[in-house]
Amino acid sequence: MENETVSKNFIEQIIDNDLEEGKYETICTRFPPEPNGYLHIGHAKSILLNYGMAQKYNGRFNMRFDDTNPTKEKIEFVESIKADVAWLGADWEDRLFFASDYFEQMYEAAVKLIKKGKAFVCDLTADQIREYRGTLTEPGKNSPYRDRSVEENLRLFEEMKAGKYADGEKVLRAKIDMASPNINMRDPVIYRVAHMSHHRTGDAWCIYPMYDFAHPIEDAIEGVTHSLCTLEFEDHRPLYDWVVRELEYPRPPKQIEFAKLYLTNVVTGKRYIKKLVEEGIVDGWDDPRLVSIAALRRRGFTPESIKMFVDLCGVAKANSSVDYAMLEYCIREDLKLKRSRMMAVLDPVKLVIDNYPEGQVEYLEADNNLENEALGKRMVPFGRELYIEREDFMEVPPKKYKRLYPDNEVRLMNAYFVKCVGFEKDEDGKITTVHCTYDPETKCGTGFTGRKVKGTIHWVYAPMAVPCEVRLYENLIDEEKGVYNEDGTMNINPNSLTVCQAYLEPALKDAKPLESFQFVRNGYFCVDCKDSKEGAPVFNRIVSLKSSFKLPK
Ligand code: ATP
Ligand code: MG
Asked: Which of 130, 261, 250, 232 is closest to 183 using CA atoms?
């Protein structure tokens, strides 16, 4: 029992406590994205945390678009966000909400504050408001409009709503304390005039609530109990609490902050991803080199691997940055037993077996995954002419090189032993063909024990090989220099994408978009969902097989 308490994160401890004290009967969490971009791996943490808490405590999880700012928001983002959240497995059931559906209630809430003498209409300009606000070391000054009567405030606010004022001419402010040490409490603006069309409410409104006022109301309306957000909102919590208290909600929601997820040397901020997209450095929000959810899905990450990653990161109260290698570890772990291990040659060179009958084809049995028999077996064609990896032959091998070189014998995976008997070069000295002989006695699966070889290499049968574009990735960011320069520009790695003309074994010809496989020795690969055609897949490398990453203890 004691162990169980120790292993709980700080949010679970708060929830336990609240339930014990009878503060709430059941819990309700929400994911509240602003529809102004695509979601990224950091959002996945928030989604899985909110959903996970609701599941764990048998509570509810709401999906709510925080669409109170009409300038940057688009329907396109609403749709992509819904798809991403659903793909991650966070089920909001029938609770899909939009903050804009509460505009009327927010307006009523503002009127209530005015009637209580807790809000006033202010005519100061934005610059003046800033001037009056004071600084971290000096208190602010009261607005000259602060003592307007309730009646006058009601009339002016009504007129703001009716469209009588231009943008910026008047605002509604909470009346709290201009001397508060917390600047957020110095009579913050809660409503502004903005003559803008909203993607859902159209021109119904020309006043819009500010985030700090709107968010607690949205939570309270939905019966959210634990409003989980990131650390930058910690200083806004007193205002959150003020709003729910002054509006007298019977079971006020509670804001809890946790640390954002950052990946070292990876661009996560929406604003920066947007910049990469707009400048054409990547080919869209789902470019496989990005860590938007759409990009991770296209690259071949699974929801399970992302959940494993988020769980490993844990929930903390202090910001820190995680290594991308940990994400790679998670996808390798997830795919290891689930995917078939196929043969594909990324940098091909021809291999001819001089003593194998011309024109003869035989089909050899191969295990799909030696560690998981349930994946079954397949038949792979074999014959006189094959492709092997260019790096699997060397004319003059270094010490410890166990693959093909003159007079050396290796095993062709799933097939026979072959011995190198010669090679051809072009005039630039580049190897064009490797010649071998094979020993029919050494056929794989026949239990041959006559002699041993040190190296095993993979291959594909040339006449039936499927030519294919394969893309390999490196970090988009030049890791030596870090992500950002002082002027806000980013250090882009010029080698983040390599395109290979590869050959695949025939079974891969009909692979479907988003299907993934291990290509032996080369890593895990996923069929690109944008650029593949039927019978002509394009493969993206998800991750290589090897890593120096060690799971933290
Ligand atoms: P960004 O900073 O990347 O632009 P955002 O915070 O503006 O993101 P929102 O749509 O406002 O994006 O965020 C929705 C929810 O996701 C919020 O509750 C926010 O705190 C959370 N969130 C955003 N980024 C991260 C992150 N890196 N790690 C964990 N949670 C995050
Ligand atoms: Mg935001």
From this structure: 130
* Binding site membership of 261 for ligand 1 (Cβ less than 6 Å): yes
pLDDT digits (tens, 9 = 90+) for 304-347: 999 999 999 999 999 889 999 999 999 999 999 999 999 999 99
Gap between the Cα atoms of 519 and 343, Å rounded: 6
Per-position DSSP letters for 431-473, written without gaps between them: EEEEEEEEEGGG-TTS---S---S-EE--EEGGG-EEEEEEEE
Instruction: State how far the Cα of 132 lies from the Cα of 129, in Å rounded to an integer.
Output: 5
Distance 110 CA to ligand 1 centre (A): 27
> Which residue, by CA, sits nearest to atom 27 of ligand 1?
42
What are 431-455's pLDDT values in tens digits?
Answer: 999 999 999 999 999 999 999 999 9
The helix or strand, by DSSP H or E, that contains position 296, with its residue range, turns out to be: helix 293-299
State pLDDT tens for residues 100-114: 999 999 999 999 999
Tell me how crowded residue 182 is: count the other CB atoms within 10 A of its CB. Answer: 14
Tell me the CA–centroid distance for residue 272 and ligand 1, in Å: 13
Per-residue confidence (pLDDT) for residue 269, from 0 to 100: 85
Location of structure tokens 């021109």: 203
Q: How confident is the model at residue 6 (pLDDT cuts 50, 70, 90)?
A: low
Instruction: Decide: 241 in ligand 1 pocket, CB within 6 A.
Output: no
Measured in angstroms, how far is the CA atom of residue 121 from the centroid of ligand 1? 31
Cβ atoms within 10 Å, residue 439: 15
| Stretch (H or E) spanning 50 | helix 41-56
Task: Enter the pTM of the model.
Answer: 0.93
Rounded-to-integer distance, Cα 336 and Cα 539, Å: 18
The two tokens of residue 460 are 């594909």
Q: In this structure, what token pair is assigned to residue 468?
A: 């294919």
281, 287, 289, 293: CA torsion to nearest 10: 130
- 457 within 8 A of 526, measured Cβ to Cβ: no
270 falls in which pLDDT band (50, 70, 90)? confident
CA distance readout (Å), 183 to 126, 130, 229, 258, 386:
15, 11, 20, 21, 72
d(Cα 256, Cα 234) in Å, to the nearest integer?
Answer: 8
User: Residue 85 CA: which ligand is closest?
Assistant: 1
Q: How far is CA 85 from the centre of its chain?
A: 11
User: Cβ(16)–Cβ(54) under 8 Å?
Assistant: no
**Is the CB–ligand 1 distance for residue 270 below 6 Å?**
yes
Q: Is 45 in the pocket of ligand 1 (CB under 6 A)?
A: yes
- Tell how many helices (H) and how many strands (E) occur in the chain: 13, 27
